[in-house]
Specification:
binds iron/sulfur cluster; 3-stranded mixed beta sheet; single chain
């Protein structure tokens, strides 16, 4: 018995209706949740408008972390031009050609609330402390895949290419100093208060107080890191656009949340054809059953006729 158009439409609709429900309900799964801030989240606030580029914080970071002198750019002086395998904190200068405002910028790990480096690490060698929110690296879990150097939207982790037992290096908020009740190295030497340390909520209030008390001083009256990339624990104030300082406009959704949303969307749209296919299978199976039954009845009828 051939499948009629009516049967085909009814069968597909039967399965298609629940599919439509699944797809509609699935939209909820695409919503992103706000990322919780750890209870005792620490942070640093860097205010580019009062940084004088003295690099005392760079030297203090090297001393606090016992990193070797970085003299690759200049054999006589320690003058790193960017973060690298021995430099966890760097001061750069943004100086546009058109003579408009210049700015220094301090770069180190942002200690994201939802760190892409940790989300991408297959062995949890990078992990976020649930209390303080500090993102650290554990040597014995790392297999050296360097995936974290690709997934970080701020291009922070660096890999030691030389050496027998290479490490991934990045700022770990001087957690060895925090354990002793000390401040991170970079935040304990700044002569102008351009970089300060404290609980993240307190730093956020301080940043907003500065914006309010100096109208027009800060770019977009905005604290970079309050919401960017789902929020970070290193917060920035600046008088020039953040992008000029190497801080990308990532939006309020974290990179891992965005990736998850696209993954869900992919599976969501994959579900609809799969369910429609299931509908077709059901129609075909029903039709085959009908064929079998018809053949069986025909056989029975032929048998009866033979007996007569
Ligand atoms: S800035 Fe990069 S390395 Fe630092 S926590 Fe965020 S994703 Fe990880
Ligand atoms: S918190 Fe520590 S490791 Fe990070 S930049 Fe400051 S001094 Fe360097
Ligand atoms: S110590 Fe302070 S003023 Fe000096 S470069 Fe670092 S952040 Fe800027």
């Amino acid at each position: 018995m051939p499948i009629t158009r009516r049967e085909l439409i009814t069968g597909v609709a039967k399965v298609g209706a629940p599919a439509a429900i699944v797809v509609t309900l699935g939209k909820d799964a695409l919503k992103t949740e706000p990322i919780p801030v750890p209870n005792a989240a620490v942070g640093l606030l860097y205010d580019a408008t009062i940084c004088i580029g003295c690099k005392a914080c760079v030297a203090a970071c090297a001393e606090a972390n016992n990193t070797p002198p970085d003299t690759r750019g200049d054999a006589l002086h320690q003058a790193p031009s960017d973060l690298n395998d021995v430099t966890r904190n760097v001061i750069k200068l943004y100086k546009p050609d058109d003579g408009s405002a210049f700015s220094f910028v301090k770069r180190q790990c942002m200690h994201c609330l939802d760190p892409a480096c940790a989300a991408g690490c297959p062995f949890q060698a990078l992990h976020k402390d649930p209390e303080t929110g500090v993102v650290s690296w554990t040597a014995d879990k790392c297999i050296g895949c360097r995936y974290c150097t690709i997934t970080c939207p701020f291009h922070i982790p660096r890999f030691q290419w030389a050496g027998f037992n290479p490490r991934v290096t990045k700022c770990e908020f001087c957690s060895h100093r925090l354990e002793k009740g000390l401040k991170p190295g970079c935040t304990s030497v700044c002569p102008t208060g351009a970089v300060i340390f404290g609980p993240r909520p307190v730093l956020l209030l301080e940043a907003k107080r500065r914006i309010q008390s100096s109208p027009g001083r800060y770019f977009q009256n905005r604290v970079y890191g309050e919401l960017d990339n789902g929020g970070t624990q290193a917060l920035y104030l600046s008088h020039v656009p953040f992008e000029k300082l190497g801080l990308p406009e990532l939006g309020p959704e974290s990179v891992p949340a965005r990736t998850l949303r696209w993954q869900r969307r992919f599976y969501q749209y994959f579900a609809l054809p799969a369910l429609l296919y299931a509908g077709l299978v059901q129609v075909i199976r029903k039709s085959l059953k009908g064929h079998e039954q018809e053949a069986h009845e025909r056989e029975k009828e032929t048998g009866l006729r033979a007996q007569l």
